[in-house]
Amino acid sequence: MSGMWPQAVVDLLAGAGGRTVFEDGDRHVTGDRMLSMIRRIATGLRERGVEPGDGVGLRLGVTAEAFAAIMAAFVVGARVSGVRDQVPPGAWSTLIDDEQVARLLRAPDRPQAVRGRPGDIARILWTSGSTGTPKGCCQTYASMTAAWAAHPDRWPPAVRALAARLQRYLVFGSLTSQVMLEYGVLTLAAGGTIVVARPPGFPDAIVRHRATASVITVGKLHQLVRDQREQPADLSSLGALLVSGSPLPPGRLAEALEVLGPVVFHGYGQTETGMIALLTPDEMHDSTRLDSVGRSPVEVQVRGPDESRDTGPREGEIYVRTPAQASSYWNDPAETAAVFKDGWVRTRDIGTVGEDGYMRLTGRARDVIIVQAEIVYAGAVERVLSGHPAVAEAYVVGRPHDLTGESVHAFVVPAAGTAPDPAALTRLVATELGEHAAPSTVALIDRVPVAASGKPDKHALLAAADAVATK
Hints:
It is a single chain. By secondary structure, the chain is α/β, with parallel strands linked by helices. The protein folds into three domains: 140 residues, Rossmann fold, CATH 3.40.50.980; 202 residues, ANL, N-terminal domain (Rossmann fold), CATH 3.40.50.12780; 102 residues, 2-Layer Sandwich (GMP Synthetase, Chain A, domain 3), CATH 3.30.300.30. The protein contains 14 helices and 25 strands. An eight-stranded mixed β-sheet has the order 2-1-9-8-10-11-12-13, sandwiched between helices. Strands 5-3-4-6-7-17 form a six-stranded mixed β-sheet.
């Protein structure tokens, strides 16, 4: 295979030449300078004996040098893994941090050939661990080479619409994360600049850096909307907020559009697959689409419980096949066999693909509660609750029950200026979904606890439900 990853990124940087591609405060790094750093770090890694297939762990901040180090590790053909808490160290043999990168940059600036091999693992992306222990999703060099981000001719329409707004893409957290790096590469391909966000965060970072785009979790989006209602900041530079991490209820999406304007892109994807679907602001003009995650540009099947294949509008588990999908989990053959099936990835999400082509998510295949032998999808209960005008957010967990096997427990964030009636919400769910789905308790909370991944922390909610039940 020619043009192995990350050759496309190298070519983008070469094409940028003297244009700024990475900005950190007063520091502006051109394409030529970034390429020089990549070559130097790659030379240093090779002088250390790093060969194709060797594991390189990266514990790096958000800097131009960090971006160069990531790309240099790919250039030498290494198996690249971000390093964070709860991740087992066996995925790498060489650990690189910011201090070591500074030493690697002292190596000579020599031409470097991309040495990745198609079947080798290029990177291990770790899931958030929100439903258990983090799993390492393994992408091969062939898979990363097939990805669309660095190739404008491969962009689906929704991505093309997003790319047009990526003049100044704000990054934070870690450049080894899938979303930050993928949309960083998309920014380079769109001719934009990757801009480092320094504290404080939203909305100040958008204003201070004149950002045109960034990624935002659902929780932070809710906070940004509240802040803009109470004390509006000048967000006129903003063109795109890519929502990731968890589904966005239609009511909250409508509110975000009202307060922030047509800047919200509602994405759906997984660590195992990359982007699956994307709903653009233009598509949101039709309010009937606000409960969807957009049209999918990848292959999708909706399968029944027996894994029978059906691409019709009925509800079922979503299976996808994407160009850059992972092919296995690191050192986990059992989970690999359960999720990666004959070239398809089992998302474990429940949903539909309508006749209009729009995908709608309705729950998690594993996020189920068994009440008197009846299956209750937590996502379905959350949708009913969040559809009530007095409810801003709703989250549902299940806990063991002596008589029914399990029971449903709901946590509700009231809409501004309202006081939802728990009894009325319980009756609403019973009417919509049946008595077995009605919550045993409905607790009003100021805000949902958030895990380190930025997703709602259902483990914390379950502990809260246990505390209520034992009183």
